[in-house]
Specification:
Order of helices and strands: EEEEEEEEEHHEHHHEEEHHHH
Number of helices: 9
Largest sheet: 5 strands, mixed
Strand content: 15-25%
CATH topology of one domain: Nucleotidyltransferase, domain 5
Number of strands: 13
């Protein structure tokens, strides 16, 4: 049965019968013979045919047996960023391709030329096709970089430690929102999750409140690090190191803490729980204490403010982190 969800997407399920795909040419039910750009050897129950920027794509699901690979590194910390896509704790750096910024002038030019064309005309369709192909090129460059990075990490490392990034909060910075959105942090974590299962690796996600960039990887000193500072200069031990490399080393140590259940116990001990306030006597509207602003600013009984919660978590993390570094030194 051929089901069309829209003009550019259709699904073939062949009434529950298996569909054999062998070689370069394939006979599809209800359609006939089609040729593919790459040879396919698989048996599936359902095929989805889609059209993107004038080209046709065939996607299917088949059984896959994951195999574990021999790992060259036991634990690695990965720090994601905007200036560089990823910095590993062993010093390896994956540069950001920034293909959108390179192709943005050409894209802007095509959209400017298309501004006065009649919608639905042949010239309008041709211009729309050029714009769609350029968008697809940008997306494919980003996908290729993410797939190569995640495959390298999952194949060669036993444990991969990343940070639980607050991407929605990072996008609130309008000066960096475009660059952050292009990096594809969610796609990186999604690919890493299923590839770690394929190749027998372990993925550890450190809590987002862990101060990886603010902490010295040698002595554990904590200081503020604005975005304009690209090197971490510790006033206690005199260490001078790249801030991304320092963060990745701290993430690697944080992953070890999590594997030894110290990190989990730390989070469980200092987890903040809201206490429902007691129902009191309703006051009059004229009372300033009953206004909405006063209720939001004034902390309720038995509850911590947001700043107090963050400070308690940071102090908790640093206590366990310093103890763990002392144990390693012994």
């Amino acid at each position: 049965m051929l089901r069309k969800r829209n003009a550019s997407l259709s699904t073939i399920d062949n009434c529950g019968k298996p569909i054999e795909l062998n070689g370069w040419s394939h006979k599809l039910p209800f359609i006939g013979w089609v040729k593919t750009y790459e040879p396919i050897e698989a048996t599936t129950q359902k095929i989805t045919i889609s059209r993107q920027a004038g080209d046709w794509y065939l996607s299917l699901a088949f059984e896959f047996t994951p195999t574990s690979k021999t790992k060259t590194t036991e634990v690695v910390g990965v720090d994601l960023g905007v200036k560089t896509l990823a910095t590993l704790s062993n010093g390896k750096v994956f540069e950001s391709l920034k293909s959108y910024r390179k192709l943005e002038p050409k894209l802007s030019r095509l959209q400017y030329i298309n501004r006065n064309k009649i919608i639905g005309s042949a010239n309008w369709r041709a211009a729309q096709l050029k714009i769609a192909r350029l968008h697809r090129k940008v997306a494919n460059i980003r996908k290729d970089a993410l797939h190569k990075l995640t495959t390298y990490l999952a194949k060669n490392h036993g444990t991969i430690v990343i940070e639980d990034l607050n991407v929605s909060g990072m996008l609130s910075n309008h000066k960096l929102a475009k660059s952050i959105a292009y990096q594809g942090f969610y796609g990186f974590r999604r690919q890493l999750e299923y590839k770690c299962q394929w190749y027998g690796s372990e993925l550890v996600v450190v809590d987002r409140f862990f101060p990886s960039s603010k902490t010295c990887c040698r002595c554990g000193h904590v200081q503020d690090m604005p975005l304009n500072l690209r090197r971490y200069d510790c006033p206690d031990c005199g260490l001078s190191i790249d801030r991304d490399l320092n963060a990745s080393i701290n993430l690697r140590s944080g992953g070890r803490l999590d594997r030894e259940c110290l990190w989990t116990e730390c989070c469980r001990q200092f987890r903040w729980k809201a206490v429902r306030p007691r129902v009191g006597v309703r006051r009059k509207r004229c009372d300033p204490a009953t206004t909405k602003v006063a209720r939001e600013r004034a902390p309720r009984e038995g509850m911590l403010t947001k700043r107090q919660e963050v400070n308690s978590r940071i102090s908790c993390y640093m206590t366990f982190y310093i103890d763990f570094m002392k144990q390693l030194s012994l």
